Amino acid sequence: MPHRTRIKICGLTREQDVLDACAAGADAIGLVMYPASARAVTAERAAELARVMAPAVTPVLLFVNAQPQAIEQGLRAVPHATLQFHGDEPIEACARWGRPFWRALRIPAQATAQTVNLLEWAVQSASAQALLLDAHVQGYGGGGQSFNWRGFDWSQPELNVSRRVVLSGGLTPASVADGVRWVRPWAVDVSSGVEDAKGIKNANLMQQFVAAVRAADAPTRDPA
Hints:
CATH superfamily: Aldolase class I
CATH class: Alpha Beta
Distance between the termini: 22 Å
CATH architecture: Alpha-Beta Barrel
Number of strands: 10
Number of helices: 8
Oligomer: single chain
Number of domains: 1
Strand order of the largest sheet: 1-2-3-4-5-6-7-8
CATH topology: TIM Barrel
Strand content: 15-25%
Helix content: 25-40%
Radius of gyration: 17 Å
Shape: globular
């Protein structure tokens, strides 16, 4: 069976965008609970947006160095959510909630396997459901910047890339296919690459993004 890359669309703030993302084929919707972000929503707003998601779509609540009470509030509002920790949280703080969680690693643009030890990070984050690899930008993500994914060895079995790694950072409908084919991640995560403005998604771009991922998933055929 061919690998099917999961797709998370992050930073949604409007019900219509949630509906469009689900219709396009998103597997997960990211709701930003980081007040400093232009895409931030409150816990109450997150609950409203989660209510219009298709049943099979996973809500993901994104936190950045949040206080425990903020996470508690988010989980009360969206109790079936997966958590995403996108700051400098220690692994113990991520795991304490008894919920599936994604842990982000922000990678400098020109980093390589010689400067960033992904294997060590994966071992340290063994309790995480997924490892989200994002570009290191000011403001903790969503900046439309990518990192050099060609600078890493994704074949190391300890990374368990196809079952655990989420590729993020500056992905667009034009670039995501290359990332999927090169890395073969478990999932991809997009925000600015499918927007008209911060927090305002474009239905056509979301459809194009999903189509590009599915095309990259398709096995290549040898010429006859």
